[in-house]
Amino acid sequence: AIENQSLYQHYDFPVGVAIEPYQTAFFNENEPIIRTQFDRLTASNRFKADFIHPEENTFFWTQADLIIEYAEANNKSVHGHTLIWHEQLPTWMENFKGNRNEWEEMMKKHITTIASRYKGKVKAWDVVNEAFLEDGTLRPNIWYKNMGSSYIEKAFQYAHEADPGALLFYNDFNLALRPAKRKAALDLMKQLKFKGLPIHGIGMQSHIAISYPSELDLALAMKEITDAGFKLHISELDVAVNGNSSSSFKLNSELLQRQAKRYKFVFENYSKLEKQYQYGITIWGINDGESWIPGYFNREDYPLLFDETFSPKPAYCALINN
Ligand code: G3I
């Protein structure tokens, strides 16, 4: 039985998972996996603006609270995802009319209300998510268009004021695959930190595949981020097996072995980093049947550690045989 093994107990850094609140119900088949295999939880959706702040003067806490309460009852830490992003915005926010000051006030209220409610309960926040484009320029999202590039430092400032004890992260994807994007993100974060802003870490979303990025590029990205003095979160880890999106795809044991090797590489390379920079690794989902990848890319895929029947896959076994 899965309860006889524990993934997180094999590592001396936290091993987290992204979940939906319903998965924590005691009769849900994901629940024993969450409880026994992971010691950190992230809501895949429930702290995002469209869910938690659906109207300008309405916050909806019920679903986010469920995750916090489950975490408290089961001794897990919570990683907060995410305060400022360009996706999953409520309509009122997308259509907000105001000058720069009014946008700042609106953003401040959003961040302050959420971060103060969960003060001391959320260990760290993804304060700003995906602010850069692949070429390293700033993404022209609603925050940038209405507040200019200073929206990023303002967001960190407001989050810090609301919960001075929380660790604050910048989180983005393809930081290993795209050196120009990584450099731009690191340069800005170093610059803001030098100015005195409370920026503690970088989240490397790791939606990777069996064939890319290379091990060399993954290791280089981890090294550059920690060499710059930031804690590193391997956030959003999953390993796609259907890399070329073929419709005639067949899962086989060779693909599962290659997937296992990728997971193992990420964990082993991460283990070698200096302790003070190891914030943890978060896997983006529990079982293949509920991964975001098939729906989002409209293809078959099996990116996680457990299959649709909640059985551990070769990747899971590789991670606990260390
Ligand atoms: O809640 C509605 C439900 O009412 C409706 O019936 C249903 C029908 O489609 O949709 C539900 O919302 C979905 C939501 O997940 C909750 O399940 C959205 O359609 C769906 O788009 C949304 O997908 C999420 C995606 O972010 C949105 O961009 C994924 O679950 C989530 O895993 C994914 O996570 C992101 C990270 O936050 C940031 N980095 C990339 C990563 C993958 O896209």
From TrEMBL:
Keywords for this protein: Carbohydrate metabolism, Glycosidase, Hydrolase, Polysaccharide degradation, Signal, Xylan degradation
Biological processes, Gene Ontology terms: xylan catabolic process
Top EC category: hydrolase
InterPro entries: GH (IPR017853), GH10 (IPR044846), GH10_AS (IPR031158), GH10_dom (IPR001000)
PROSITE patterns cross-referenced by the UniProt entry: GH10_1 (PS00591), GH10_2 (PS51760), PROKAR_LIPOPROTEIN (PS51257)
Example of a GO MF term: endo-1,4-beta-xylanase activity
Active site positions, chain numbering: 236 (nucleophile)
Protein name in UniProt: Beta-xylanase
Record-listed E.C. numbers: 3.2.1.8
Pfam families in the cross-refs: Glyco_hydro_10
